[in-house]
Amino acid sequence: MARPEAKLKELKTAELRHEVGARSELVVKVNRRSERRIIPYGEEFLFEKLPVGTRVIYPPPPLDPLADADQAIRYALLHPENQDPLFAQLSPNMRVTIAIDDISLPLPQMRRPDIRERLLNQVLQTLADYGVDDVHLVIATSLHRRMTEAEIRRVVGERAFKQYWPDRLYNFDAENRAELAMLGKTDHGEEVWLSRRAVESDLLIYLNINLVPMDGGHKSVAVGLAPYQSLRHHHNVGTLRDSHSYMDPTRSALHRSSDRMGTLIHESVNIFQIETAVNTRMYGGMLDFLHKNEDHFTDWDRTRLKGFQWTMRNMSNEMRRTVLHNYAAPYGMIGVWAGDTEAVHQKALARVFQQYAVPVKGQADILIVGVPYICPYNVNSIMNPVLVQCTGLGYLFNMYRNKPLVREGGTMIICHPLRDEFHPEHHPSYIEFFH
After folding, report:
1. CATH code of the domain occupying 69-278
2. Global pTM value
3. Residues 264, 341: contact at Cβ < 8 Å?
4. Taking Cα atoms as reference points, which of 33, 32, 39, 41 lies closest to residue 56?
5. What is the pLDDT of residues 331-340, one digit of tens each?
């Protein structure tokens, strides 16, 4: 991803800070004069003194968002990758299904209007302009929990919700055999099942958000609209153990399997993929100090940190959880592409890596990770002990390319209060399994 050193010197300062190879300042070594470091700790934050010599990795600064997101979406629909423009693929009597990423991304939720609402409004307007009225909106939950009415309304916006809910806007039901269709098997013997509505549509439009490289691509349709019969081939212990790294989909067994399935799906289903990418602006306003290197804190930053800690410490666990889940991040959209799945995904991946990649030299003996209050599986819910392990060992450990941050035989310290708390509706099976 990094440009040659000679090229880097030609870049302006504003561009230079976003070059992956020029991000050595994001890996900070602790010395005797270093400030304590903030570490996520469930619904709280630790503020700890770390041993001298510890390396602390910070996220890259947010890339500038697109100046006009709606205009960028219109351009993508009119200039797709390796396909005709969306309007040119439409006719009045066709059946169209729009599949939409669920609330497992981004984390935390974004401020309104959600990117999915922006995409949906323009796609629906294009369909209406060309007389397409057989349209269903399907939340691509796969085997995630179903989104509530309020959650769906927040994601798709009032316009789409009022027009389509509940008959033509609904959660995908992966357990309803009548709503499923089998398309065949891959050359690896993997059964490919999919939403029957999607299979029987003249056009399937997928609306995606990329936060990290594990999202998007063939995984969108092949996983988001698939039941257990397909997921069992790649969401299993053996395959996930062989996944190597979520940051490098080319080496992930999960992605290789979903790519094979996606290729087969494309033989039967006409897919128009729309992918977006967001920047790292997770905290804004009074919480923007959480983006900073603690050695660079101002007096105002320290005052806000103390106030934030005091406030959170004096709330009940339930109140803290409610406050944090209601927080909406000021993410900015840094890219949008439409058209052929593979071509679109390659452009999205390049943008995501530009935003998130940090070069780290050498593995560590000990890796410390803070597990926050949220992961893809507990939005508006409880981060229970099973999900803490999933987040720490499944996600955070695997956020690397080439080699893990911690060496083989090393130690990983996961910071979380690990309370014996479970959401009885969202995670009922976890309770008996855990105890």
Report:
1. 3.40.50.11440
2. 0.92
3. no
4. 39
5. 999 999 999 9
